Amino acid sequence: MRALLIAPAGTVTELDLPEAGERSAIRDHVGSTEAVDQGLYHPHALLHVHGNGQSIGLDSNLTAWALASAWRGMPLYPVHGPVVVTGRTQDGETSSLDDELAAHVHAVAQTVRETREAWQARPPTSNETAVRELLAYVARDVSAHR
Known about the structure:
Elements (H helix, E strand, L loop, with lengths): L1 E5 L5 E5 L5 H9 L6 E6 L2 E5 L12 H11 L10 E6 L5 E2 L3 H23 L5 H18 L2
Antiparallel strand pairs: 1-2, 1-5, 3-4, 4-5, 5-6
């Protein structure tokens, strides 16, 4: 089953999850020994996140946050730790991620990297400005890959 792993550093790795036992594999990838939270930010995708990522001190995941926010069309709460992105069936089950949604993930990851690099030379004037700027860029990426 095709999935993508978004690391807090912003890297994206292709995964081939087993059809049987995908929940265990997802838990391993997000670093949780307990159940993993599923975020529904797109009707055909699930973001699998560590349920206690923030409270145990996992690094924030700007790329996963930007992707989820772009899919929802608004800034969301922070995401912490590694995130696995899978497809979603009509009845809400985990499925293989399709090419279009994988393209969203890769495009958003590249935009986040490029934007962070640009901010090194030209820092945003405020956090609010940074959020607006980044979300405008990733919203463009998501709409361009439809």
